[in-house]
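seq:
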Amino acid sequence: MTIANWQQALPHGITLSCRSAGERGRPVLMFLHGFPEAAFVWDELLEHFAQPAHGGYRCVAPNLRGYEGSSQPAEVAAYRPKHLVQDIVALAEAEGAPLTCLVAHDWGGAVAWNFANQHPALAQRLAIINSPHPGTFLRALQSSPAQQQASQYMNFLVRPDAEELLREDGYRRLWKFFTSWGGAPWLSGDLRERYRSVWDRCLTGGLNYYRASPLRPARPEDPAAGAVTLPREMLTVDIPTLVLWAMEDTALLPELVDGLDEYIPRLTLERVPGASHWIIHEQPAFVAARLAAFLAQPQ
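struct:
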């Protein structure tokens, strides 16, 4: 199955570079990547689910705004959640049918949680892979010393000199994002080159997601999450939702899935031992199988 690359101009002036497999007009699966990634991380799943034997879906993975080939607004405010959600709403509408499922990881999940809360009619299902629900994440950032410590990297990424520091020594600090648990044996030479190419072109856009969000640990000069209150109506998700949670994630701790059922009445939660934040690279066949099982569940 061939991956197609194309550009989608959106009505509000943003263009998203997209990767896809499968014919237009088929039921749509849309995949949202995180940081410091790009749409290519979903290629194996795009090809898998586009095959007739696995549903024959139209599979679409955009590079989020600020990332490879997509519009890269200079203003940090352009990366606030309302704008990110607007992009995915417009892309979904351009596909011409409600999404069968919105699948998301990391920062893509932050967008997807808001999308499902605000636009439930546009997606029949939601699948989240190691991306914290805003309610449980805010709770942990305000009250959990362990998660506060695990999230300190966010305060590094909002520094004005973060790009310069991340580029030092051939992106030494960024490679540690991948290798800090398990050594990342999946990180082949070819994959390293692909990531390096992405970072060479669009590092600032990804960092602006962190700069635009207050959901990070408080500091003496910045109350950050300590000053945030989220009303419950912004946190509920009423469509069927799968959460796959790799339990060895060192940045997003297992406590972040505790209490999810308070916000998501139709929740399927699967904790995955022995997998890290990068489970999509580590165990793509497992992720595909669990997603297929979720898609097969009665609506």
